[in-house]
Write a structure and sequence with these properties.
By secondary structure, this protein is α+β, with helices and mostly antiparallel strands. The chain contains one helix and three strands. It is rod-shaped and about 95 Å long.
């Protein structure tokens, strides 16, 4: 007759608990890493689109100032084609800005409309 103390059963149960804990911890860390990655990609995409909108807004404001200066120098100013502005200081005109001046001619009340295509 053999006596069994049951030590091997306790050891295998302890190993199963440690293994389950390790797998669970790895799973939670993987989910956290995936969430951080998704948030980083989303924030980068949002920043890129916000930058383009801000750039377009300031271009439109610059076009308004440009049109006002042209009207101040020449009250009959009436642009017929899109005005190209240099947006990054490299000497090249790279972003089309359409300036429309209504009621062209001297002594008229002008309305300036600007559209930026980006």
């Amino acid at each position: 007759m053999r006596w069994s103390t049951g030590c091997s059963t306790v050891r295998s149960d302890r190993g199963a608990v440690v293994l389950t804990f390790a797998i669970g911890t790895a799973f939670v860390c993987a989910i956290a890493a995936f969430t951080v990655l998704i948030m980083a990609v989303s924030n980068a995409r949002h920043a890129r689109s916000t930058r383009e909108r801000v750039k377009a807004r300031y271009l439109a404001e610059a076009a308004q100032v440009y049109a006002r200066e042209q009207l101040w120098m020449n009250p009959a100013y009436c642009p017929g084609a899109p005005v190209m502005l240099d947006t990054n200081g490299d000497g090249l005109t790279d972003t089309p800005v359409t300036i429309t001046v209504t009621a062209c001619g001297a002594n008229n009340k002008h309305q300036i409309v600007t559209n930026v295509t980006f």
